[in-house]
Design goal:
The protein has about 280 residues and is α/β, with parallel strands linked by helices. About 30% of the residues lie in helices and about 20% in strands. Strands 1, 2, 3, 4, 5, 6, 7, 8 and 9 form a 9-stranded mixed sheet that branches.
């Protein structure tokens, strides 16, 4: 059994000075229903919040429910965040993800969620959003408009799949960065996430392909370098071949033969092992 419902994640766009998203932001729950399990067999499970990619223009269905179901099969509670996209811009999506993390923490006890093992996974621009939470979680505007106190929006760890990380035009996916900035040039420095990593950034699991021609592998490498410099533990996997947007890299999410890359299909099993062995 599964508890599957959509939760509205409401923020005040006008107060933030950004345009509202073209659709309602929701958090879809894929909660494993343990209510009928008795006694010692009932256990707290990790939870994973999935942020699909889509250049902050849309959220990819291929990187949403198929990924959630895989984590469910591993025994994790899962959530999918349909966050704000253009013309909405910073800090809207980051505030929504912050509220989502707090929401999962708030419902942890009643749903057998392990509050110390809540993870956020993001792909491409969703990876930029997740990494932004990792480095910008304590910015005053984020805490204010997400209506969270410091620490309430910090997950245990981040899982980044071919993430957009840098605003450097030589390596950036500029469509994602421009939508993140939304015309506010004073925000653009915040898109260089590698410059904001500190020892308060959560531990990371990162994977990318060397041949990604949309979001260069340098994005993941720069973030990993910054994590190492700050003493933050991470696990990094670079696969030699594979186009951008692989998701699960198998037939369940591929739109063509190039989207099936057998060598990269083990990333999700390794991330599951990483969660199960996670130590702060």
């Amino acid at each position: 059994m599964m508890i599957n419902k959509k939760i509205d994640i409401n923020i005040d766009y006008a107060a933030m000075g950004v345009q509202p998203s073209p659709r309602q932001t929701t958090l879809t729950t894929y909660i494993l229903d343990d209510r009928n399990i008795q006694g010692s067999m009932k256990k707290k499970r990790p939870a994973v919040i999935v942020c699909p990619g889509g250049a902050y223009e849309f959220t990819s269905e291929r990187e949403a429910e198929p990924v959630a179901i895989k984590y469910n099969a591993a025994g994790f509670h899962t959530f999918v965040l349909d966050y704000s996209v253009a013309p909405s811009s910073y800090p809207a999506a980051l505030c929504e993800l912050s509220k989502a993390v707090k929401y999962v923490k708030d419902i942890a006890e009643e749903n057998n969620i392990d509050r110390d093992r809540i993870f956020v996974v993001g792909f491409s621009a969703g990876g930029h959003l997740v990494a932004s939470l990792g480095v910008h979680h304590s910015r005053p505007e984020v805490l204010k408009f997400a209506d969270v106190t410091e620490g309430e929006n910090i997950p245990a760890g981040l899982i980044l799949g071919y993430p957009v990380i840098t605003g450097d035009e030589t390596k950036a996916h500029m469509g994602s960065i421009d939508n993140f900035v939304g015309g506010k040039e004073e925000v653009r420095p915040l898109s260089y996430l590698e410059n904001y990593v500190t020892d308060k950034t959560p531990q990371c699991f990162i994977w990318h392909t060397f041949s990604d021609n949309a979001v260069p592998v340098a994005n993941s490498l720069r973030f990993a370098d910054a994590l190492e410099a700050s003493g933050v533990k991470f696990e990094l996997h670079i696969y030699p071949n594979g186009e951008h947007g692989l998701s699960l890299a198998d037939k369940t999410t591929a739109t063509n033969e190039e989207g099936c890359v057998s060598a990269a299909q083990n990333w999700i099993d390794m991330s599951i092992r990483w969660i199960n062995e996670f130590e702060k």
